[in-house]
Amino acid sequence: MSTEETKTAPAADSGRKAPAGERVADWADGRLGIYGLAKANMRKIFPDHWSFMLGEICLYSFIIIILTGVYLTLFFHPSMNEVEYHGSYIPMQGQLVSEAFNSTMHISFDVRGGLLIRQIHHWAALIFVAAMLVHMMRVFFTGAFRKPREVNWVFGFLLLVLGMFTGFTGYSLPDDLLSGTGVRFMQGAILSVPVVGTYLSMFLFGGEFPGGDFVARFYSIHILLLPGIMLGLLVAHLILVFYHKHTQFAGPGKTNKNVVGMPLLPVYMAKAGGFFFLVFGVIAVVAAVASINPIWAIGPYRPDMVGTGAQPDWYMGFSEGLIRVMPGWEINLWGHTLVLGVFIPLIIFPLVLVSIAVYPFIESWVTGDKREHHILDRPRNAPTRTAFGVAWLTWYFVLLVGGGNDIWATHFNLSINAITWFVRIAFFVAPVLAFVATKRICLGLQRRDKDKVLHGRESGIIKRLPHGEFIEVHEPLSQEDLHTLTAHEQYEPVAIGATTDENGVERKVSASQKLRAKLSEGYYGEDNQIPKPTADEYKEITSGHGHH
Amino acid sequence: MSTQDIPEENLPSEQDAGHAAVAEADAKDPFADPGLPPHEHRIQDIDERAAKRSERTVALLFTLSMVATVAFIASFVAFPVDKIVYIFPFGRISALNFSLGLTLGIALFCIGAGAVHWARTLMSDVEIADERHPIEATPEVKAKVMDDFRQGAKESGFGRRKLIRNTMFGALTLVPLSGLVLLRDLGPLPEDKLRHTLWSKGKLLVNQNTNEPLRPSDVRVGSLTFCKPEGLEEHDHDFQTQIAKAALMVVRIKPDDIKDKQQREWAHEGIVAYSKICTHVGCPISLYEQQTHHVLCPCHQSTFDLSDGARVIFGPAGHALPQLRIGVNEEGYLEALGDFEEPVGPAFWERG
């Protein structure tokens, strides 16, 4: 002991013991090498922007879900054995329910605080998936997915998809009438798969629907398989965030080669750590006052019963929309049935998600840009990307409307047939309209930025000139603002160039090259971005005689 | 891949390429990066009294959290689990759930609010710039890795001893098959299970509500009756699976209103029996329009015309509801004259 101390603190304080905390840290360092880790990360810089909180909400709601989920497993019985209900909820006395339903009722009515934890768990799940989608949109619209972060984009996307299915398997567990209807819908969709559909259904449900197995099977998927994969992906996602360092918006002093902000210790330790408690606190209050999935009002599952206005949890709503608005096409040939009316929605369902997931790779192919990007784009400065993102969101929301067509019909006194037809048409038309409109808006905003840079901002001061004319005085921008508004990069469209060389020999141009040139023109051609003001333009305007 | 054909000059210049000498640049380049703006002091940085106020606010929030936790424990002990109270505007809600959630929420939120307020008002808010380093390895590192890999690969003899390589791939490809085979007993084969229901010749139609066999006189025009096959009881271990296929709805339509000829023949004096399970994805159909004899599935709004062979008139269902042939036995009860002629519920590949 004493020899070790003289080794670590030789001359300075002879014989004095290091503080206890330091000694613990020394012990850990000798085994885990924590000082090396802390050197790199303790004062790691995080930039400040409200939108960077969205990912934190995902992380924290995930932690809340795990904490409350572990608690729920202590009371939940994942079994479909039928028992008579004899808990403290009077209206359901003596009714035949599954043990899964029975134990969920027990958690809700007989375990003190059980209902609260159940509601926190369910609310946090809704918030988790919503936060992931919004976080993903933030990353999308600011171009944060560009090199070197493409892999992390994919990790995040997988987390979103897995989160949706973890949610689905989770809300199916109480075996209530609403969730059972959702499971039936899934089973019907599985049956539509050509050739193997009936086999998949029999294997998943251990026989015919509903059978006696699916709750136990969904349970192990919900509490072990999917969250296990998600935990791995989440850790990888966070390691990459640390490794790549955070992105930042352009601004004075912020370059592609630095990251400007405040250190992890103490500022972000307090802010991010505190934010966990804020998120948890808000969800706890929501769970205190807003009931969610009141299975006692819905009742136990019976395959021959259903309630009206059945809706899945929101993140499954777009798949509901697909299945509701698809025409009921069925092809019968050679003794077999191709259930296109169900199978096509089943195929489009993942394609909706994949279409946004592959976008970063398409964009990087079009630009051919292989450099690292750490400065975020303002959405207006990437009009085609922004327009694509808005078109995708429009598509998604049109499907959500389709998924809730009965709710829209009853709440707004509309014809359900009219809504269904609207969604059928809007499915194809609305994204195109949204794309065109968004692109125009982005270009308009680019023009306004250019105008602001060259002519200054409107001061609101009206001046009367000696000859009677009224003008509004424009104030020139500060250099900080000038820099910020002109810091974005602008690409030149990729040209194929002459297809014959100077000797008249024809050069082969592949179809993919032609496609890329066309796309590149669409992204960066003359009418598709507003050239940002140059220093010369600025000087010419500002040097002479004032400006108005 | 094919990025080589994009010349470098097509890419925009590096964002910070020209901004090395920031200070003297602005004369030449009005858009140059002026560098980090000077730090602006907060009131707490210059006024110790303001800092003290912030300190008290943070401490107050943390104290509030402690009080809330005590209140949480107190509510847990004080409120019985079944106590219902009226709280505006939420209505009649569980007192325990409300008080536990509220106190837990306040206890957590105050910790968060205190920490954030502390960070925002008292901790240093001087912005610091950290250097970034390229993710890509330097050419030397890459060369070293490549060398190491080649050396390792060579020492393993992987490329040279093809027999080892190929048999190893074979073994690794086959071994997951064991896992796949083990999944076989997850469920039985479909066979013709989806083609049959509990209905058969002579089975009485039992009213689900009264649990009594149904007589023709029980079924009036405009009413909708749900039936199950005689002998199927709720306590049966396979009740759920059987009723998922056998659920039946019975309505009476004036025989003249029935447009479909076969339907009229399969009915008894205008009493028709159809499968209750939607042919779309299997929800139970439960909404009946008396005037038009339309039934609607509340899940996805498939609409069927019961006066016309239950054909689909709107929505995503792909084919008509199967009809059960019924008659009356000697005692005057409605009975099935056989099973459904076609599979009930959602369509599938083998349905044909």
Describe what you observe in this structure.
- The complex is a heterodimer of chains A (548) and B (352).
- Chain A is mainly alpha-helical and 548 residues long.
- Chain A contains 21 helices and 10 strands.
- Chain A has 3 domains: 2-41, no CATH class; 55-359, Cytochrome Bc1 Complex, Chain C, CATH 1.20.810; 378-495 and 508-548, no CATH class.
- Chain A has helices at residues 2-8, 20-32, 34-41, 53-73, 99-109, 114-141, 150-171, 177-191, 197-205, 214-244, 264-289, 295-298, 317-325, 340-357, 359-367, 383-403, 405-412, 416-455, 479-486, 511-524, 535-543, and strands at residues 45-46, 82-84, 96-98, 248-249, 258-263, 331-333, 336-338, 375-376, 457-464, 470-475.
- Chain A is globular and about 90 Å long.
- In chain A, 42% of the residues are buried.
- In chain B, the strands form 4 sheets. In chain B, strands 4-5-6-7-12 form a 5-stranded antiparallel β-sheet. A 4-stranded antiparallel β-sheet of chain B has the order 8-9-10-11, with no helix packed on it.
- In chain B, a hairpin with a 5-residue loop joins strand 10 (303-305) and strand 11.
- By secondary structure, chain B is of the alpha+beta class.
- Chain B has helices spanning 43-46, 48-78, 95-121, 139-156, 162-174, 176-182, 239-246, 261-266; strands at residues 84-87, 91-94, 128-131, 205-207, 224-229, 248-252, 271-275, 287-289, 294-296, 303-305, 311-314, 323-324, 326-328, 334-336.
- Chains A and B meet through helix 6, helix 8, helix 9, strand 5 and helix 11 of A and helix 3, strand 3 and helix 7 of B.
- Chain A: Its main location: membrane.
- Chain A: GO terms for molecular function: metal ion binding; oxidoreductase activity; quinol-cytochrome-c reductase activity.
